[in-house]
Design brief:
The chain contains 18 helices and 25 strands. It is of the alpha/beta class. It has three domains: 233 residues, Glutamine Phosphoribosylpyrophosphate, subunit 1, domain 1 (4-Layer Sandwich), CATH 3.60.20.10; 174 residues, Rossmann fold (3-Layer(aba) Sandwich), CATH 3.40.50.10490; 158 residues, Glucose-6-phosphate isomerase like protein, domain 1 (Rossmann fold). It has an eight-stranded antiparallel β-sheet, covered by helices on one side. Helix 3 crosses helix 4, helix 7 runs antiparallel to helix 14 and helix 15 crosses helix 18. It is globular, with a radius of gyration of 25 Å. It binds 6-O-phosphono-alpha-D-glucopyranose (G6P). The site of 6-O-phosphono-alpha-D-glucopyranose (G6P) has 16 residues, from helix 9.
Length: 590
């Protein structure tokens, strides 16, 4: 969602700000803007639309000393030029960009209006700008003003703030991501490291409820009126590579990185003879009476496999959608362990769950792709996925990494070494799907006109079907659902019309015959059936097969099939594959 880029120093601010926004635009947005300070004056440009539109309306300026920029994903107020960030206070003393949601903005706005403030936008952010101005004029000190505003605002914020008469660039942060970058030509700030990667070699994680300022050569971090020490982090270049190489889309590149990502997981957590997980993590899982997974979207679907893996270990386990659990938490288990799965580590609903878990003093393991993210930092234990930056909005390689990580943890808990052999076979099976992707492209061409599509499976395949349907709806805009084979007769079969595509996933000999029966029932009601089986279960009428792997890992291979299918349907329809409408990569508001 919203992306922030800012900095103070001696750099080409035009290319840093606009280039930086481009690296963040994968998060999803509907308007963009920037402000820069030159010759002591603040210049502001903003527009609804793309960063390219912002580029077109921004003059070719040089010699700016500081700047802030933003991509906005509308929450309060429609996407419009006026509602785009940066926002400014009534007397233009403050310009700022904001990521997050001010929950008490109505009450604050009413109070500010009573004090004579007028508002020009429908946003919650303008409230922060006017509050900061009011406090700054009153207290005559930017730090005191920010400190006061932090106590007044309820909700989440990461803000980059320019006071029109001050040479420093200020910031404040709660819950929403913000990182400070230190470079030789200046100091910078952004929602993540990627925009700053070319300029900085050292980063500072901004603490919750802290604030501060940067100049070209200095930085100050504050909390509750006291200066605090920085928490430095190093970001490796490969975690931040923002380059699609020869691929036409990031999604295709990321699907095809699947095998490499799984190999990298083995490299990081297996030394050739045994797993190298922190023994405390393994103990924590073994000792828990109930393993509770929390996640959203694709990560939630990965967690459903985690639940099955924990059942294999003989544990009670369940998974909840974080946006539900955050409002209806359930702490009934005697000795629970929470496993939080998040590619970005910044999903607001999951952060809310983690806060509740931590407030109750309960252990939690974060499985995330983002070192230093909020969920990573606040977990009892954190496990990194090492999948590399995932840019396409539709998650692909991160799902493969999440499920593999869960399988590896399960093997480590049960001390079975054959788990690694199975994972190596998984890599080969994914490579085989990659080599035969053209066959999937041909299948996809048959589905481009579909209004609805269904994925069905039994056992682990029913979990894969959930993720396949999510992928298809996300990027092809075809209404896609998934069902466990046996459930079809209890309702969904009523939806089948002549020509409705139904994709049957058949990977497990235990339920293969039953699923094939279900598919026949649908075929006789007019559905176009596509059977995706495995080498050993292949029937010559099937449409595609994947190589044999253990059923508990077959879901990953079937999902890779689903990722390709969705990609090619979207490609055939000429849709914006990497940035589907209305979606954001990182959902940083609840
Ligand atoms: C958004 C993304 C999905 C992702 C979900 C959870 O909806 O578009 O691809 O699965 O958020 O994100 P997380 O970063 O917590 O895994």
């Amino acid at each position: 969602m919203c992306g922030i880029v800012g900095g103070a120093g001696k750099v080409d601010f035009r290319s840093y700000l606009i280039g930086g926004l481009k690296t963040l635009d994968y998060r999803g947005y509907d308007s963009a803007g920037l402000a820069y300070r030159k010759d002591g004056k603040v210049n502001l440009f903003k527009t609804v639309g793309k960063v390219e539109d912002l580029d077109n309306i921004t003059p070719k300026f040089t010699d700016a000393t500081m700047g802030i920029a933003h991509t906005r994903w509308a929450t309060h107020g429609e996407p419009s030029d006026t509602n785009a960030h940066p926002h400014f206070s009534m007397h233009r003393k403050v310009y700022l960009v904001h990521n997050g949601v001010v929950e008490n903005f109505r009450a604050l706005r009413t109070k500010l209006k009573f004090n004579g403030y007028e508002f020009v936008t429908q946003t919650d952010t303008e409230v922060i700008a006017n509050l900061l101005e009011e406090q700054y004029l009153l207290l005559k000190d930017p730090f005191k003003a920010i400190e006061k505003v932090i106590t007044m605002v309820e909700g989440s914020f990461a803000c980059a703030i320019m006071f029109s008469d001050l040479p420093e660039l200020y910031f404040m942060k709660r819950q929403s991501p913000l990182l400070i970058g230190l470079g030789k030509d200046g100091n910078f700030m952004a929602s993540d490291a990627v925009p700053m990667m070319k300029l900085c070699d050292k980063f500072i994680e901004v603490e919750e409820d802290s604030y501060g300022c940067i100049t070209q050569n200095t930085y100050v971090l504050m909390k509750n009126g006291q200066e605090i020490q920085p928490n430095f982090v190093v970001r490796k270049a490969e975690e931040c590579t923002f380059d699609k190489g020869d691929y036409p889309h990031f999604m295709l590149k990321e699907i095809e990185e699947g095998p490499k990502v799984i190999k990298r997981l083995l490299d990081n957590y297996y030394d050739g003879t045994s797993f190298t997980f922190d023994p405390k993590i393994i103990e924590c899982i073994k000792e828990a009476d109930d393993v509770v997974f929390l996640a959203c979207g694709t990560s939630y679907y990965a967690s459903l496999l985690g639940v099955e893996f924990m059942h294999y270990l003989g544990k009670r386990s369940e998974s909840y959608i974080a946006s539900e659990w955050a409002y209806y938490p359930n702490l009934t288990a005697k000795n629970p362990l929470f496993i939080l799965i998040s590619q970005s580590g910044e999903t607001a609903d999951l952060i809310a769950c983690q806060k509740y878990i931590n407030d109750n003093g309960l252990p939690n393991i974060a499985i995330t792709n983002t070192r230093g993210s909020t969920i990573y930092r606040n977990a009892t234990f954190a496990l990194l996925l090492y999948a590399g930056l995932e840019v396409a909005v539709a998650a692909t390689k991160s799902y493969n990494a999440q499920v593999t990580m869960l399988a590896m943890l399960t093997s480590a808990c049960s001390s079975t070494e054959h788990g690694v052999r199975n994972i190596r076979k998984l890599i080969e099976a994914i490579e085989d799907v990659i080599n035969r992707k053209d066959e999937i492209h041909e299948l996809a061409k048959k589905m481009t006109q579909a209004k609805d599509a269904f994925f069905v499976g039994r056992g682990y395949d029913s979990l894969a079907a959930l993720e396949c349907a999510l992928k298809l709806k996300e990027i092809s805009y075809i209404h896609a659902e998934s069902y466990a084979g046996g459930e079809l007769k209890h309702g969904p079969i009523a939806l089948i019309e002549k020509g409705t595509p139904v994709i049957g996933l058949v990977s497990d000999s235990i339920s293969a015959a039953a699923l094939r029966n279900n598919l026949e029932e649908l075929r006789s009601r007019g559905a176009d059936i596509y059977v995706i089986s495995t080498e050993s279960l292949f029937d010559k009428k099937d449409d595609f097969y994947t190589k044999d792997v253990k059923p508990y890992l077959a879901a990953v291979v079937k999902v890779v099939f689903g990722q390709y299918l969705s990609y090619y349907v979207s490609l055939e329809k000429g849709l914006p594959i990497d940035k589907p409408r209305n979606l954001a990569k990182s959902v940083t508001v609840q």
